[in-house]
Design goal:
Blueprint (H helix, E strand, L loop, with lengths): L2 H12 L5 H8 L3 H13 L19 E9 L4 H12 L4 E6 L6 E7 L2 H10 L7 E8 L12
Antiparallel strand pairs: 1-3, 1-4, 2-3
Length: 149
Amino acid sequence: MDKIDRKILAELQLNGRASLQEISQAVGLSSTPCWTRMKKLEETGVIERYTVKLNAEALGLGETVMVQVTLDSHSDNTLEKFGETLASIPEVVEAYLVSGEYDYLLRIAVKDTKDYERLLREKLYKIKGVRHSKSSFVLRTLKKSDLPL
């Protein structure tokens, strides 16, 4: 990956709906070599997919909660089942298996504290194998960015 590939990626991060002509012009290439580079970035997995960023607050999901979770067991089966269950909960936006005091770090999007309490009762607390959880409401987002290029 060279400087031009990184420029293409930066342009796509700024505007995933940019036309091939717009991207080509921004990076200083004609359309065909730019298209070839973009296809190669897709084929090698650098570009996973094209998507849209949604505004959580505009969707009525104004609260973000970071949840640390500890499981009773660390068997392959328990970890697999836990991951499958998390995948079925739309409010869980991100889930990471982490090192340290807790096993997982979850980022959850909810309407408000009442909605989070409902999520805990109806979904998180019903997941088999959860020993302990610790929740922190995000008060303000100081930095939210794309991957560095």
